[in-house]
Specification:
Helix 6 links the parallel strand 3 and strand 4. It is built from 9 helices and 6 strands. The structure holds 3-methylbut-3-enyl trihydrogen diphosphate (2 copies) and magnesium ion.
């Protein structure tokens, strides 16, 4: 029996995995390369991992690609990330043949017009895909998302007494999706950095020192293996 087959039969998959794709800059620095080269390597890892998640039958994968705080970086680094996003979007046909359904989450408004058009094309083009549901978080911040939800709720004129936790969830970018079961952060940092802060209330976490460009399906399998040994109680016994 192949390793892949054995693994898929033996272990339980989370429904929704979220990944903080971190460590590109340090990966490049270690090689005396510009930070942008780290982002190029990280983008390749992203494609490999998304395809792998699709192959093993994962339902939802949400990746953190650019945060609302990442605009603080030097302009040339931000530009290089936006150009990589353009390249990815122009290349998105690749994912179509994988039957992956792509959605972008975050405040997309400040992005360049051509990027917004490409995003729409990518989402429309994959809307009937039935494989992995891939969410890419761009200009995403959990606090920004909640603030935006509150604005929408207030504008709807709903009476305060009728607001429930579900009302909040329904007004987030992830509306209609299950909360992430499992959050993975490589690069040796132990924080959420404003990622899915509402949705991760009962998520399990997995941290690793590996830098994102070095992250492989083997690391993901190791993480899933650990997930299988977690006991989720959701406050019960
Ligand atoms: C993650 O890698 C990519 C983005 C935040 C866009 P970093 O660029 O944060 O890499 P490090 O943390 O500096 O190594
Ligand atoms: C989080 O990484 C954002 C992304 C991976 C896109 P950062 O590198 O921006 O996080 P901090 O600044 O180390 O918390
Ligand atoms: Mg970082």
């Amino acid at each position: 029996m192949s390793l892949f087959k054995k693994k898929t039969e033996e272990r339980k998959l989370p429904r929704h995995i979220a990944i903080i794709m971190d460590g590109n800059g340090r990966w490049a620095k270690k090689r005396s390369m510009p930070r942008s080269a780290g982002h190029v390597a990280g983008a390749k890892t992203f494609k490999d991992i998304a395809r792998y998640c699709n192959k093993i039958g994962l339902e939802y994968l949400t990746v953190y690609a650019f945060s609302t705080e990442n605009w603080k970086r030097p302009k040339d680094e931000v530009d290089s990330i936006m150009n990589l996003l353009r390249d990815y979007l122009k290349d998105a046909e690749n994912f179509k043949s994988d039957n992956i359904k792509v959605k972008f989450i975050g405040n997309l408004e400040p992005l360049a017009d051509d990027i917004k058009e490409l995003i729409k094309k990518d989402e429309d083009g994959s809307k009937n895909a039935t494989g992995l549901k891939l969410n890419i978080a761009i200009n995403y911040g959990g606090r920004d998302e909640i603030t935006n939800a509150v604005k929408k709720i207030v504008a709807s004129g709903i009476s305060p007494d009728s607001i429930t936790e579900q009302t909040i969830s329904d007004n987030l970018y992830t509306s209609g999706m299950p909360d992430p079961d499992f959050i993975i952060r490589p690069s040796g940092e132990y924080r959420l950095s404003n990622y899915l802060i509402w949705q991760s209330a009962y998520a399990e976490y997995w941290f690793s020192d590996v830098l994102w460009p070095d992250f492989t399906p083997k690391h993901l399998e190791k993480a899933i293996e650990e997930y299988n040994h977690r006991h989720r109680r959701f406050g019960g016994v």
